[in-house]
Amino acid sequence: MPFSPKSFISKAVHGGEIRRYAPRAKRIRSTPVVGGIDPSIGYIYDDSAHLDDALGGDPNLYVYGRYGNPTVAAFEKAMVELECHDMPERAAECFALATSSGMAAIHLAMAACGVRAGATVAAAQDCYGATYSLVDGLWPQYGVKGVFVDATDLNTVERMLAQDAPTVLIVETISNPLLKIVDIPRLAELCHAYGARLLVDNTFATPMLFRPLVHGVDVVIHSATKYIGGHGDVLGGVVVARNDLRSAFWEYLKKTGGNLGPHEAWLLHRGIKTLPLRMERQCRNACVVAEQLSRHPALAQVRYPGLPEHPQHELAGRLFGYAGYGAVVACELKDAGQEDVFRFLEALQMVQPATTVGDVYSLVLYPSHSSHRALSPAQRAAVGIADGLVRLAVGAEDPEDICADIYAALGS
């Protein structure tokens, strides 16, 4: 009987690996400890029936890079193992498909779930800026109606579902950049009661903190660029869902070509192996940093789900099993405009101003001119993104050093 790891940590280290242990024999055979990269675009078969199966979408056979790749498949298998950790007996009923970026994964999920001319797509009003622009700008060009809703208000969500009948609702486990937490189990119940699919962007929480599939979510999405990769050196995305959706997803990805490359997949798979270590440290750091910054007089507000004053603090604890509250902290500089924020960013020494999260480095971003730049000032104000808001992605450094750098940049 082959050994199967039970712990999430062990699954992160070994997930997606296929080792061929040689039986006792006279010949000596070695197996590499680290998996390799298969860069081939094409594959040949001696038996044309197998070629036919490969062309028909058999996930265990490969024929062309846009149809699938062994290195990419290993990464996808690892993601299934992590997202299905709470229901290992059903992991075989789920699939993952990797994409070239997180936004490619979001677009794939929406399209494969039926978003097309005449349909309605709904999103949380405080979602990531590029997701907002997709719903508000790109999809409407193709005859799709986009609507936004306060996903923290279940009564408002239900009214929207009844009135607009969206094909899908997309929310974030931890919203970007305001760090709101939504009651995903209840949202799944509401969406299914009104015939909508619930898509959850789990990028900020990662499967380390929360696994949406066990709560009835239809599709889980990650910008794997962030915490999955973990080192700021690879771009990628991934969707995870149940097998009844696989054909629609695979056909759409095959035809549109937003696939992840094998070299990128190898880096992302490597990143998964240290995900539990990094997330544990970075979540712990974020708690320390948020608590210390919350007392700083130059900051009007500090938002972090781990702070008791956060409006969804209790919900976050229940959803995440008190394993952590994420590694992102939102801070609003008091009475600050763009020039004040720019001075703060330029004064930082160790914390780096970069437009991403999930790296081992601490990074800071100004949403009004980066992640949410496409939104008008009125749209940003309606969402709650103030001119002085900055998003701090807490890294793996010593939290005292992180705070000292921020204090110095704030002028204290």
- How many E strands? 12
The biggest sheet, with number of strands, parallel, antiparallel or mixed sense and barrel status, is: 7 strands, mixed
Question: How much helix, percentage-wise, in residues?
Answer: 25-40%
CATH topology of the largest domain: Aspartate Aminotransferase, domain 2
**What proportion of the residues form beta strands (DSSP E)?**
5-15%
Domains (count) = 2
General form: globular
The secondary-structure class comes to alpha/beta
How far is the first residue's CA from the last residue's CA?
62 Å
How do the SSEs run, as a string of H and E? Answer: HHHEHEHEHEHEHEEHHHEHEHEEHEH
Radius of gyration: 22 Å
The CATH homologous superfamily of the largest domain is called Type I PLP-dependent aspartate aminotransferase-like (Major domain)
**CATH architecture classification of the largest domain:** 3-Layer(aba) Sandwich
Give the overall pLDDT as a whole number. 93
Main-sheet strand order equals 1-7-6-5-4-2-3
Low-confidence parts: none
Give me the number of helical elements.
15
Tell me the name of the CATH class of the largest domain.
Answer: Alpha Beta
